[in-house]
Specification:
The chain has two domains: about 190 residues, D-Maltodextrin-Binding Protein, domain 2, CATH 3.40.190; about 160 residues, Periplasmic binding protein-like II (D-Maltodextrin-Binding Protein, domain 2). Strands 1, 2, 3, 4, 5, 6, 7, 8, 9, 10 and 11 form an eleven-stranded mixed beta sheet that branches. By secondary structure, it is an alpha/beta fold. It contains 15 helices and eleven strands.
Length: about 375
């Protein structure tokens, strides 16, 4: 997209360029026993009108096109699901560049802020669906029905039980206490998980108090590690005693090794005000694109994913928590118990992201 900005193109030529870009966009089919689906020129031809048997997805969920939920949806409905993968922000820019020529019917993201931005930028359309209204709790869907969350990605405190006891832990804020100096491992400031968490502190406490907390984190951090998995492995090896990580990274490690020596502590569960606001969570969610050609197929996919069976399969694909508390969680997660979630609106994280980055830079948080 940036390369095109420096070139002056006549409107007609620009339209042709966008058509070519859309036609050449990589589309990966979900392979089912019935079909492998068209690609290349055949995919371009399919863009010319409604194809009730296909739904095209732009997705930042890099867990493979063979996720059980999508395979099962195709098996039950006969609707083929095709993917093109990329990072959240890049997919939004791609939708802007393609405009009405996009092949995408659905945008899936792993960050609520990016999904909210897509709606604000006019990239998603409202979906009138009593099914989605019923199955998705109000806190996890757009007030204007442009996007819907399906599973939660909970970011909380991880610790080494040989070095730390649960009664020593309480809140994210408490990790700024000097007692944790040289014992803390964190993701760097460039990571979106960190940016969202700091944005939540700014929202809860104001800029100056949040600045004090993050300055404490910076002082206490023994090592900044740009991988939740490596943070957990470092804690297990005794390289640090506590850290902050998304819960599903530990679930993946526990599946491989049930005796993996790291535990989770659900942060901010007790107390008045911000201290008891609940654990920080983001979500995987989706919306139907503004120029979707296969709107009916797209709506059916979202509705199916919101059902108990569909949501359980979707969430289990990455050991995430279903947004509907009535849907059963994966067996690996059950021993970790219940928790209260911070339901701060996702737009807050996007609106305060620049402030969060500036704050971390001011206090020397790497």
């Amino acid at each position: 997209m940036q390369a095109l900005l420096g070139i002056r193109i006549l409107p007609v030529v620009a339209a042709v360029v966008l058509v070519i870009l859309a036609a050449c966009a990589p589309v990966t089919p979900v392979i089912t026993p019935e079909t492998t689906g068209p690609t290349g020129e055949e995919a371009a031809e399919a863009m010319t009108g409604e194809d009730a048997a296909v739904v095209y997805i732009y997705s930042s969920r890099h867990y493979g096109q063979m996720e059980a939920a999508f395979v099962e949806f195709s098996r039950e409905t006969g609707i083929e699901v095709r993917f093109s993968f990329g990072k959240d922000a890049a997919l939004r820019e791609r939708l802007k560049a393609e405009g009405e020529f996009t092949p995408a019917d659905v945008l899936f993201t792993v960050d609520g802020g990016n999904l909210w931005l897509a709606a604000q930028e006019g990239l998603l359309q409202p979906v009138a669906s009593p099914v989605l209204q019923k199955n998705i709790p109000e806190a996890w869907r757009d007030p204007n029905n442009r996007w819907f969350a399906f599973s939660l990605r909970v970011r909380t405190i991880a610790y080494n039980p040989e070095r730390v006891t649960p009664d020593e832990l309480s809140t994210y804020e408490a990790l700024a206490d000097p007692r944790w100096e040289g014992r803390l491992c964190m993701r760097p400031s460039t990571n979106v998980y960190t940016q969202s968490l700091v944005a939540s502190l700014i929202h809860q406490y104001g800029y100056e108090k949040a600045r004090e907390i993050v300055a404490g984190w910076a002082r206490n951090t023994k090592e900044f590690i740009d991988s939740d998995t490596r943070i957990l492995e470092t804690i297990a090896a005794g390289g640090c005693d506590v850290g902050i990580a998304n819960h599903y990274y530990l679930a993946r490690l526990v599946v491989k090794n049930p005796d993996f020596p790291v535990k989770l502590f659900w942060a901010n569960q007790v107390g008045e005000g911000p201290e008891g606001r609940g654990v920080h969570a983001n979500f995987s969610g989706a919306g139907i694109t503004r120029y979707a050609r296969n709107v009916e197929s797209a709506r059916r996919l979202l509705e199916w994913l919101s059902t108990s069976r569909g949501m359980a399969l979707f969430a289990a694909g990455n050991f995430e928590y279903p947004v509907n508390p009535e849907v059963e969680v994966h067996e690996i997660l059950k021993p970790w118990g219940n928790f209260k979630v911070d339901t701060t609106p996702v737009e807050i994280y996007s609106e305060l992201q620049d402030d969060a980055i500036r704050l971390m830079d001011e206090v020397g948080y790497q």
